[in-house]
């Protein structure tokens, strides 16, 4: 019986890469988030940076499941677009190549009729 030890990572090797939002992407997302907080729609958020996807989750309350997930999947860059808005039930509300265009789905929730 042979035992295999995990491969040793030298200081010169990079750890496994993870996907993250860029500063410009975060500024667009946080701008929308601030307007939704001011409107009383959203209250909390969470950011997850995983190996294949970066997720910005939006919550109405802290202890709930997210209302929306804004996902960045670079592997879909050349196919359907790397940005997606995922609703509570897991349905994809919008997918595309341009983050601002994808976020317009959520901005429509800000527009209300004034009597």
UniProtKB/TrEMBL annotation:
It comes from the Bacteria. The lineage of its organism: Bacteria, Pseudomonadati, Pseudomonadota, Alphaproteobacteria, Rhodobacterales. This is DUF2794 domain-containing protein.
């Amino acid at each position: 019986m042979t035992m295999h030890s995990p491969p040793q990572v030298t200081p010169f090797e990079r750890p496994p890469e993870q996907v993250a939002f860029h500063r410009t992407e975060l500024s667009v997302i946080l701008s929308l988030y601030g307007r939704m907080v001011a409107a009383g729609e959203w209250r909390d958020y969470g950011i997850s940076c995983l190996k294949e996807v970066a997720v910005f989750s939006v919550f109405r309350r802290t202890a709930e499941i997210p209302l929306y997930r804004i996902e960045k999947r670079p592997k879909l860059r050349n196919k359907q677009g790397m940005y997606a808005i995922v609703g509570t039930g897991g349905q994809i509300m919008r997918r595309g190549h341009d983050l601002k265009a994808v976020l317009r789905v959520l901005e429509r929730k800000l527009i209300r009729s004034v009597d």
